[in-house]
Description:
Order of helices and strands: HHHHHHHHHHHHHHHHHH
Helix content: over 70%
CATH superfamily of the largest domain: MFS general substrate transporter like domains
Oligomer: single chain
CATH architecture of the largest domain: Up-down Bundle
Distance between the termini: 36 Å
CATH class of the largest domain: Mainly Alpha
Number of domains: 2
Shape: globular
Radius of gyration: 22 Å
Number of strands: 0
Amino acid sequence: MLFTTLYNARAYYPVLAILFTDLGLRLDQFVLLNGVWAAAIFLFEVPSGALADTIGRKRLLVFSATLMVLEMGVLLFAPKDGGWLLFSLCLLNRLLSGTSEAAASGADEAIAYEALPEENRESAWDQVMATAMRWRSAGFLVAMTAGGLLYDPSWWNRLVPENFQLSVELAHRLPVALVFLQALGCLWITLRFEEIAPHRDHTADRCRSALRLTMQTALKAFGTRSIALVLLGGLLIDAVARNFATLISEYYRLIGVPAWAFGVIGSLIAVGNWFIPSIAMRVNQRFSPTASLSLGGAVACVGLFLLVPGWPWVGLVPALLLMMMLGFVSFTVSRFLHGVAESEQRATLLSVKGLVFNLGYGAYSLGFSLMLAGLGKQGGGVFQRALLWQAGFFALVLLGFVVISEFKGRARRNWPGVEEP
């Protein structure tokens, strides 16, 4: 819980874009760097999970935390307006960040899950996940608030004498410095992990074993109806919600929210996410995974349609609702995958899920961008019309998912058991 909170709740998140542009990068360079970050996650997501199952989860987590220390150190000391040196260091930062996230993905949950007693492990894991999500929500609440306050020293300089005032250049490094300290904490925590589940011994063919395990796990995931359906339902909601998250500032502008309130709204989302685990736990204990995802999709669909009118301030309600569905989907899919995964393939299966979700998010973002470009040729109000098309598209796809899952689910209702293909 400490690791996942310190690793994910980063104070520079609310100022990420302006952090890089204030250092001297152009906006197009920042977009390119995010492409490198996504590519690194895509390339290393599944191999890292297989390596975790092959050489040990602790080693992968120590590796991930080490990369986090390096990525934040590179960004902390990157020279302002440093030209190609600055760009190269920021490029290295994004590459290290993506690789670090890929290495941690799956391995952190796997090492914790295997540490639980086998008796009543599933119900115990529900409690662990719920508590961890609440810790992360609290961490994000602090990080979102602290990041904006640390980055903008004007409020501090109005309160203290001139001798204690902070320069803008120093203040811009403070959120990064705080996350650097978090990275050191993550490294200390991972070094203290004790791995319960055995892993394969070091052998000369460890890479071949990792590749073989990746292929076997991917075939199982996509060849088993229950796993494929849960992954499909999860990525449907996740892709749409994550895409909206990247465009949420544009939506805030559409409904007339001032820029200073963005961090406060982010904190409200974190507070709302505190209650999501309890809701998700009750829903998943009562309904099958596909039924739970169908309910979550219905809530997301209502939120998408309520976004379209662009009501000033009131439009924040469906936006917050849609953001909270990310936590609901994460809980539901993770709970199911842990229930069906074999011990030696657990981290790999979770990494397959991460890979599928990232591919779905990337594909949907590309499609949404093409839709915006097409609507732009028809006149103004592009973003609002795109929201309408998005809501209609999501409703149709969700209906198809409900029909397919209901038809396939008649063969066997004993979730989360896995039927053969």
